[in-house]
Amino acid sequence: MPRIIRLAAAQLGAIHNTDSRSHVVGRMLALLESAASQKVQVVLFPELAFTTFFPRYIIHDEQELEAWYEHGDVTTNAETRPLFDKAKELKIDISVGYAEATEDGRHFNSCIYFSGREGRVLSKYRKVHLPGTAEPYDDPDAVNHLEKRYFTPGDLGFQAFRVPGLEAGVPSGERGEPIFGMMICNDRRWAESWRVLGLQGVEVVFCGFNTPAFAPHTRNSLDKDPEQSERMALFHHKLVMQAHSYTNATYSVSAARSGYDDGKYKLIGGSCIVDPEGVVLAETQTLEDELIVADCDLELCRQGKGKTFAFEKHRRTEHYGRIVAQTGVIEPPRIGAHGQA
Ligand code: CDT
């Protein structure tokens, strides 16, 4: 029996340093209205969706820095609340990324899954893999990526969660409650993030992202040509979304913050919805605010989960110890002059 749900990615184009949260939320509301008019059930918004990608700036003033984070409850704070109120009004679920400041003074790059039908947060994820550096580069022309300075690595792990009530006609029960998971941007490049979700039977992975089109200091110092750099950034983004969707037999939805922030910091687009065979079902065509929609039959996950990637039949965990025992590379010893190690 088909288990079809309608999913969307809401890409957000340029957000400038000076753009207020209210301005951005206004744009998100327009995307949400458009999704509702197309009978979408779940909309993914990008990583750090309410502001520009502030980790590119070095900010020494504590008050100025704190103003980039959401303090208290993001679903009820004055400037961000309209998004969640609209989701409730439209009875549409959303996943959205934001900079979280906790009561005890910690800072996470987080996202939540908010059920508009139930009017509450069903799950929260805090980004585990923080790219970039804690200190700015010496080169004054470099584009900094200071996530390691402004955030603490997530402490919640990769927790899959069930969302009942999305599949029309499918009774609640094992197959009637889709299994969702969330990750954020750089997490998508790590097979480990996906496999931990895959091991919980995930059927849809949501991933918001901010990926610079050109970042030779952070990403690839050989990449001196901005156009080639952007092509490769887009290629790697789609490569990991497609490959990891396939090897974990799951749908994935990714939503970009894209465009030229402040008219000069370019972020790639390429928001896409991928099926469990690794096929791209929908992809954005611009760097602007744009919604893509796809009907996803979760039964299609059964093929991979039951055959090629039936983990319980084929995985050989006795050989995977290094994955959790070791962080960096330990190379094998050199072969000696007489062929001995
Ligand atoms: N936001 C985020 O995680 N971005 C990284 C950029 C790394 S290279 C500058 C990414 O993996 O896309």
Automatic annotation (TrEMBL):
<keyword id="KW-0378">Hydrolase</keyword>
<protein>
    <submittedName>
        <fullName>Carbon-nitrogen hydrolase</fullName>
    </submittedName>
</protein>
<dbReference type="Pfam" id="PF00795">
    <property type="entry name" value="CN_hydrolase"/>
</dbReference>
<dbReference type="InterPro" id="IPR003010">
    <property type="entry name" value="C-N_Hydrolase"/>
</dbReference>
<dbReference type="InterPro" id="IPR036526">
    <property type="entry name" value="C-N_Hydrolase_sf"/>
</dbReference>
<dbReference type="InterPro" id="IPR050345">
    <property type="entry name" value="Aliph_Amidase/BUP"/>
</dbReference>
<feature type="domain" description="CN hydrolase">
    <location>
        <begin position="5"/>
        <end position="298"/>
    </location>
</feature>
<dbReference type="GO" id="GO:0016811">
    <property type="term" value="F:hydrolase activity, acting on carbon-nitrogen (but not peptide) bonds, in linear amides"/>
</dbReference>
